[in-house]
Input
Amino acid sequence: MKNKFIGSRAALAFGALLFCATQALAYGDEAPAFYVEGGHALHGGADTDAWALGAVLPWSPSGAGVVNGRSFAWDVFASQWRAPHVLGDGRRSYAQLGVIATWRYRFDQGASPWFVEGGLGGTVMNHVYRTPERSFSTAFQFTEVLGVGRSFGARGEHELSLRLQHVSNGGIKKPNPGANFVRLRYLYRF
Output
């Protein structure tokens, strides 16, 4: 009976150590997260600002999670754009909802706090984006994102990342000038 008790305690301790090691190596990339993000359009003259609230939902169809520093997640967000009104009389707000399929690579086989990521997705806005210098032709847009960031905290639960995001309709309808944003993101994993 004593050996059985010692064996189960050892197995439990080993399991706990393995869990902690896995979490440390993965920097929490397997945990859901929420974020806030803000940025500015790079195209000249538009003076468009954007901020977003979103959730990152890790997904692994094979159940493998983070493998050799690579992971996949769904990024679901609500964004607000503020831009000069097309008629030149003040500013207009645009609400945007989107989903981005995001692939992440964490350096050193997942042991590094540094990562790069990229994603493709789609968004829809409540109005067609129009400013004095730039006009979209559709409320639906494709979006691509590239980012670099770093995790902080005991479990890697905090992240800061710098992201470049392109938004355009992919040539569905003309005009299709697109918009490019540089954004700063703070993310917290649970």
